[in-house]
Amino acid sequence: MMGARVVTITSGKGGVGKTTVTANLSVALAMRGQRVVAIDADIGLRNLDVMLGLENRIVYDLVDVVEGRCRLRQALVRDKRLENLFLLPAAQTRDKSAVRIEDMVRVCEELRESFDFLLIDSPAGIEHGFRTALAPADEVLIVTNPEVAAVRDADRVIGLLEAEGKGPARLIINRLKPDLVRRGDMLDTAAVIELLAIDLIGIIPEDEAVITAANTGRPVAFSDNSLAGREFHNIARRLLGEEVPFAPLKEPGFLERLFRRILE
Question: pTM for this one?
Fold first, then answer.
């Protein structure tokens, strides 16, 4: 049996949606029969447990494992909705130096034997702990918003990845707003890909359901009627090697088509 694929999900700056992506991709892969551990490597700022709705079930965390207070299996929290999805939570009360690079590599090596995917929610690329989350990675996904500052920071991280010999990364553009793109107030997908020069694996549209999901601990990937949820499933399918075309995010409405015809 092949060991698990370790996928680190990172970004240049905070607040672009790394944790949302990690939670939803974990759910989408688990719903496709994959055995998944979502690992929160953002020590001191843990949020992955809340996104997954598992915060009340945590007994031990990653730092407890590393410091020998429990066995790795004891720290894994099983998601009752999906029996093949687990969370390895971060410690809330420690700083990022509590987990060293060799600790993270050892934990992932131990987990590889029993799972198909380990998804690591990394601190942003400019923070301490980024290299620790990166060390065990077989693959890296970079999350950016289609805004100049976020893309510039993502470009810096791509440079850091290349320096660490990890890459080429693949790109997830998160919170794309087609209306703003059409008005020229937001970078379009082609511009972001051209600027970063890495392959695209997903485009997540802005979706109010994501905020509701974050507050209720039920990721949108559980839902059939969420635009963002469907796209997380498409990314999961692409990770599994399927050829999934990138769908247009919004069909032009009747008035828009009419207006275009008049302009032609």
Answer: 0.92
Mean pLDDT over all residues of the chain?
Answer: 90
Q: What is the DSSP letter of 116?
A: S
Comparing C-alpha atoms, which of 247, 163, 245, 153 is closest to residue 195? 153
Q: What is the CATH number of domain 5-263?
A: 3.40.50.300
Report the distance separating Cα 141 and Cα 205, nearest Å. 17
Residue 211, phi then psi, degrees to nearest 5: -70, -45
CB proximity list for 50: less than 8 A, separation 6 or greater: 214, 217
Q: pLDDT at residue 239 above 90?
A: yes
Q: What is the pLDDT of residue 98?
A: 87
Asked if 18 and 143 count as a contact pair (C-beta separation under 8 A), the reply is: yes
Instruction: Name the residue among 132, 131, 173 with its Cα closest to residue 151.
Output: 173
Q: What is the predicted pLDDT for the residue at 248? A: 64
Contact (Cβ atoms closer than 8 angstroms) between residue 98 and residue 63: yes
